Amino acid sequence: MSILIYAESENKKLKKVAYEVASYAASIAEKTQDDVVAVTINAENTDSLGQYGVNKVLNVQNESLDKFNVESYSEILTKAVRETNADIVVLSQSDNAKYIAPLLSVVLKAGYASNVVELPETENGFQVKRNVFTNKAFGMAEVTTDKKIIGLSSNAFGLHEKETNVETVDFSPELSDTKIEVKSVDKNKDKVSIADAEIVVSGGRGLKGPENWGMIEELAEVLGAATACSKPVSDMGWRPHSEHVGQTGKPVVANLYIAIGISGAIQHLAGINASKTKVVINIDEEAPFFKVADYGIVGDAFEVVPRLTEKLKEFKANNA
User: Fold this and answer.
1) Which residue of 55, 118, 151, 231 has the smallest Cβ count within 10 Å?
2) Distance from C-alpha of 257 to C-alpha of 59, rounded to nearest angstrom
3) For 264-314, how does the pLDDT look when each residue is reduced to its tens digit (9 = 90+)?
4) HEC string for the chain
């Protein structure tokens, strides 16, 4: 028996979520005494998964799979599940994984629990804690099928090293003809994506215009953070819609979310509610964001942010 994970990669490099799902699966395996098997597709340096408890890697190398294709990727995972006789499959909550999981669930007749935030409770059945209602609450779900699929919420479990001797083998399942053709994929380059970021620096209309976004980007660069924005900002064209955070944009599950000049509309708060530590900087002390923030600074962003950035630079220089 084994626990199977999909270790995602981008440009042949394993993503952080690959190590998160590996850490999660390894912790389950400690209880069940199963092996952890990872599936990688066109990834290099897969031995690094051995630092996070993976015992075996099924390594797929196929140039036709360089662009994500949900049909082919889910077929590979289906065949990997049958090859390893895995009862539990762990995926991330990336956009690609959220396409794969439902297809996998149908083919394997497996129960799928998304947005999982903790290890399963197995004393009485198989129960998992999930983010629900756009991260406004938690719910417990019991998965009763023989095969179970878990979608692990980003940054919910973290990275936990557990050194193992990992074996990497080629995995080349015969794939069916696909009805989907991916012609091109356009992505932002040289930036930390909102989905992968542990820290997000976000700006709102309080920045007064796109010409002032330099201080947001400078603070993000010092922190190694992704930049984001509120819906009005993206609607006005100050920032791309790919940075729009909220109920109608992208959810953020960061360890640290810094909101600058954002009042805190309920749709925005729904998108960042699962972030662990929230900091707000706003000149309006009555801004709704202060009610949900862990730390708040009432002040002019044009005075506070440059000083904060400067202090962080000094701290990094003194602790390099």
Assistant:
1) 118
2) 35
3) 999 899 888 888 899 999 999 999 999 999 999 999 999 999 999 999 999
4) CEEEEECCEECCEECHHHHHHHHHHHHHHHHHCCEEEEEEECCCCHHHHHHECCCEEEEECCHHHCCCCHHHHHHHHHHHHHHHCCCEEEEECCHHHHHHHHHHHHHHCCEEEEEECCCCECCCCCEEEEEECCCCEEEEEECCCCCEEEEECCCCCCCCCECCCCEEEECCCCCCCCCCCCCCCCCCCCCCCCCCCCEEEEECHHHCCHHHCHHHHHHHHHHCCEEEECHHHHHCCCCCHHHEECCCCECCCCCEEEEECCCCCHHHHHHHCCCCEEEEEECCCCCHHHHCCCEEEECCHHHHHHHHHHHHHHHHHHCC
pTM: 0.78
Rounded-to-10 torsion of CA 229, 234, 235, 236: 100
CA angle, residues 312, 317, 320, in degrees to nearest 5: 115
